[in-house]
Amino acid sequence: MDTPDPTSLFEFLRPGGILPALLVLALTYVAASFVARLLGNLGERFADRRLVLQQTKAVLRLVVFFVGILIAASFLFSFSSEALLALGGTIAVAMGFAFKDLLASMIAGIIILVDRPFQVGDRISFGSYYGEVIEIGLRTVRLVTLDDNLVTIPNNKFLTDPVASGNAGALDMLVQVDFLIGADQNLELAKRLVGEALTASRYAYLEKPWVVVVSPITLGEAVGLRLRAKVYVLDVKYEKALETDVTEQVAMAFRHHDIAPPAILHREARAA
């Protein structure tokens, strides 16, 4: 079987359709940008629907681009049955060699939108990156880290590497904050103070349960206890605000009640 000649693609080209095709592509870009801007503004206005609107934006942008490309192609090429067969073989061979990675990323983008390992608005961990997904595009996923860096990752990377979603499409998300105290400190009081800080924070989502987990910890020669506070944040965008608020309250409460951090125990006895 002969390999299709990529130059045969031009046999079905309609020169008169070049200008309309370019116009369609331009309108497609404008429409996709309008949809993204409109739903983005609505998400800021209706905070309780922000993630749903962001997810809808990702899907609609993909649909608009896909439809626009098909319409542009209908102006550019003559789609008879023979043309479709020859064109399909030509495109498959040409793109297979020239756009292998691009096609893999585009297919992976569709799989991500259908399988939904994560969604727009999710806080995800991928490799060494952690941040909020702001866009799932035809070729890449974009996320903003907590340091406000924009990271662009090819879609096909998510088909082979593990990714963790902190909120899985929900507005709220579990946040962990650690506090360390000495092994000889008042544990019961420390737990109560941490719990009071959690319930007093305006960023905490108290419709879901919170807990303080205690475990021993060794820091060099210092022996202590780790109090791990687990509480849901009201909105993922307040993750660091919650952590800061609770930490400040606990630090002041510990200082007021003389609860000390881990230290080397029996230092005087050892020195003697």
Task: Produce a short descriptive summary.
By secondary structure, the protein is an alpha+beta fold.
Structure description:
With 272 residues, the protein is an alpha+beta fold. Among the domains are: 6-98, no CATH class; 173-267, Alpha-Beta Plaits (2-Layer Sandwich), CATH 3.30.70.100. Helix content is 46%, strand content 21%. It has seven helices and eight strands. The chain is elongated, with a radius of gyration of 28 Å. The protein starts with 17 loop residues before the first helix and ends with a helix.
Keywords:
7 helices; 21% strand; alpha+beta; 3-stranded antiparallel sheet; 272 residues; Alpha-Beta Plaits; 5-stranded antiparallel sheet; disordered C terminus
Q: Roughly what fraction of the amino acids lie in strands?
A: 15-25%
Major beta-sheet overview: 5 strands, antiparallel
Second rung of CATH, namely the architecture of the domain at 173-267: 2-Layer Sandwich
Helical fraction: 40-55%
Number-wise, the strands total 8
Rounded to the nearest angstrom, the distance between the terminal CA atoms is: 91 Å
What is the number of helical segments per DSSP (H or I, 4+ residues)? 7
Shape: elongated
Average pLDDT reading: 82
Q: Low-confidence runs (pLDDT<50, min 5 residues)?
A: 266-272
Class derived from helix and strand content: alpha+beta
CATH class of the domain at 173-267: Alpha Beta
How big is the Rg? 28 Å
Across the major sheet, the strand order is 4-3-2-1-5
Sequence of secondary-structure elements = HHHHEEEEEEHEEHH
CATH topology of the domain at 173-267: Alpha-Beta Plaits
